[in-house]
Task: structure prediction
Amino acid sequence: MKYLLMFALLAGGLSAQTYQPTWDSLDKRPMPQWYADAKFGIFIHWGIYSVPAYAPVLPGTLAYSEWYWHQMTEGRDNSNANGVETGTWAFHRKNFGADYSYRNFAPQFKAELFDPLHWADVLASSGAKYVVLTSKHHDGFALWPSKEASADWGQPWNAVDTGPKRDLMNDLSEAVRSKGLHMGYYYSLYEWYNPIWLKDKPRYTREHMFPQFKDMVTHYKPDIVFSDGEWEQTSAEWHSPELLAWLFNDSPVKDRIVVNDRWGSDTRHTHGGYWTTEYTPGMKDNSHPWEENRGIGFSFGFNRAEHLKDYHSGRELVIMLVDTVSRGGNLLLDIGPNADGTIPIIMEERLREIGTWLRINGDAIYGTKPWKSSRQWSAGEVPKANYGGDLNTDYDVSKLTSKPERGKAVVEAFYTTKGNDLFAILPRWSNGTFTLNDVEGAKSVTLLGDSAAVRFKNAGKSLSIELPDLPEELRQQPAWVLKISK
Result:
């Protein structure tokens, strides 16, 4: 009994650790294990911008439709060589008129077909373990009854006071949690044209952002907060350390909350929780928790100007997930629902395709860690990747696994590990002998989804495997997983 009491006291002391409002203290907080094991989440960008749902799609560029208000405002002087107006402003002027305010879109964001139970079914079917919904983007419109939003904008500016006339965050959160998924929220620290922000930034931070953030956390109890819009001020000006100290010490989610690194112009890849990358290869290794976030196409919010060719295929998205996890990262894959509350069918299809693969092969993803080598390359020149860099539309993971060009290397296998098991994830399959380099001491080899043992031979520091004929139900997979037990 004495030892049990001592253990309880020690455990209580650990859970009751107090974090100071300094980065030196806050950065010592461990990452909750649920996030490290989850690996795959779904991002949802949904709001007023879903009404116009437009951004110009140009070769080699990213087009974020959720930036519609900013682009139509800041891009009014854009024109081509012939003096013709171009971009979002030209689209807006042609289709809505030069005097039509972005604020007029709010009542049109009705979500009349929003079915949170259907959404939750689609999200769960993807195999994702967590969901992150935009509680408020840079336009300041809140998907919950935020009193700060409507009061400070001087008009109905949340989803209960206008538009849908319902608490979208609550309805989706309840449905998502009923499926056993973790629920989180994206929250923009700043708002482009908030009247208080434009006049008095310290007052905005003190009287708008702080109480609104605490209201969101207290009432909706997220497991994850994806902060954004941090670049406009330093973390000291945002008073982010004070906010995070409250979140980690006193909030109702202090023991399980996960946060990212977007808390000031000085914090990305430096302070906070996990590092974030966006439309890039992600980070090189797992020296610090990280997450790559991106859309299925070029936009986070739904963009009506995108075509099928602008969307990644189900196979490419599976390979993207595998590539990310092999280096120790999480993938937060975005969908952009319509203003009426429906998920575009192509996005639903992509999510279900990923889920079909994960139902068979999830053991190689969930709860895994990187191996000593994340990949095995074929002979040839290994392509370079700007790990940890800025936005990069040139990184095409599908090219890493396609038929190699002359003199170029491609990935033959991605690796993950868990316990005594090594997983070799093969993006191509051909019957015959396949050799995994630097793999030794195998005791058994199996193909996930097939109960039959796979013939193999330990050959020094390599493993020679006889790839069998695939069962019918596995032939159309985007990748195949060999489980190697040691």
User: Anything to note?
Assistant: The domain at 375-485 is CATH 2.60.40.1180 (Immunoglobulin-like).
